Amino acid sequence: MLVGDAATFLDPVFSTGVFLAMATGVRAARTIDSALARTGRVDAADFGRYARQARRMFARFRKFVYAFYDPVFFEAFCAKDPFEAMRAAVTSTLAGGVEKVPYRARVWMTLMFWGIGIDRFQRKIRTRFARGTQQAPAARAGAA
């Protein structure tokens, strides 16, 4: 059974390692205690629920770690006056609120990540378009 950074290492910027180690450690201990109390031994099958819960927590934090390095997220969140609902959703998640995320926070986070996705798509299109216009004269020169 792996817990905390042994299970996944996300990023030192957010200081989530201690939270993830504690949260997954507690869940692992409960899982082991429950299995021992029930059957007197621990089997791989006993860890299914733990694995699903841990993956869910890691995935929620992972989104924020990747988003942190995206200019759209960084500019929106680090603006002088960030949109309060978005700021609250992000800070509550980073403070450890990944286990039971309120509906309102999930909506704001979804909108934020959706916006980041749109920006990435637009940047990709602009980059491809710019490459195409730069390559066109060279292609014509080679054909002549």
Lay out the secondary structure.
Elements: H1 4-7, H2 17-39, H3 48-68, H4 71-77, H5 84-94, H6 103-143
Helix pairs in contact: 2-3, 5-6
Number of helices: 6
Overall residue-averaged pLDDT value = 75
What count of structural domains?
1
Q: Report the sheet-strand fraction.
A: under 5%
SSE string, helix = H, strand = E? HHHHHH
Q: Which structural class should the secondary elements be placed in?
A: mainly alpha
Query: How helical, in percent, are the residues?
Result: over 70%
Provide the low-confidence segments as ranges.
none
How large is the radius of gyration? 22 Å
Distance between the termini: 65 Å
Describe this structure in words.
With 144 residues, this protein is mostly helical. The protein is 74% helix and 0% strand. It contains 6 helices and no strands. Helix 2 runs antiparallel to helix 3 (48-68) and helix 5 crosses helix 6 (103-143). The longest helix has 41 residues, at 103-143. The mean pLDDT is 75.
